[in-house]
Design goal:
Elements lengths: L5 H17 L5 H14 L12 H4 L19 H14 L12 H4 L15 H14 L12 H4 L15 H9 L8
Length: about 180
């Protein structure tokens, strides 16, 4: 047995023996199934003094969410094989090395380029920018983290403040004297 694996197996044995003591009804097959699940999800303590699980130390090696139990809403064998073939074709498989990079990241010239996702058009972006400038919905310079309309609210119209949408009307409404009541 390799020296670097001994601490892992020691911790694993201690964890399993503690769970067997805590749950006396488990069979050997159930314990093995739990071990396999822990190995698959990275829920085993790493073999160092950090006290972290393998998932905590190497999150890119383990799925983000636990997969469904076999036979309960999971994928069929054909679906899994199709996904594997697609991942092999596109290089979307983790390389066999210490880098943790995918094959298409290590050797991009060997795999087809990913199709660019259609985003917004230039006209859409320009219209959005014009609206942000008009409403002051842009970050002001400096470290305040405030927007222009928050720093200088008097320069930007608030929705419904002006009758016909013109700044002069809004200014006139603000400066007009309040009507006096007759007593």
């Amino acid at each position: 047995m390799h020296k670097h694996l001994q601490p892992v197996f020691g911790l694993l044995l201690a964890a399993l023996s503690a769970s067997v003591v805590a749950e006396p009804g488990l069979t050997r097959a159930q314990v093995r199934a739990e071990l396999a699940q822990a190995q698959r999800t990275g829920a085993i303590l790493a073999g160092d003094e950090s006290g972290l699980t393998l998932r905590d130390q190497f999150p890119h090696r383990y799925p983000a969410t636990a997969s469904a139990a076999p036979g309960v809403g999971g994928k069929t064998r054909a679906q899994v094989r199709a996904e594997l073939a697609d991942a092999q074709r596109t290089g979307d498989i983790v390389s066999n090395g210490p880098s943790g990079l995918k094959m298409n990241e290590l050797h991009p010239h060997r795999y087809p380029a990913r199709a660019a996702v259609a985003g917004r058009t230039r006209a859409d972006v320009q219209a959005e920018l014009a609206e942000a400038i008009r409403t002051g919905d842009m970050l002001a310079g400096g470290d305040t983290g405030l927007k222009h309309n928050e720093l200088w609210p008097h320069l930007y119209r608030t929705p419904g403040a002006a009758g016909d949408g013109d700044r002069a009307t809004a200014q006139a409404q603000r400066t007009r004297p309040a009507p006096q009541r007759s007593q």
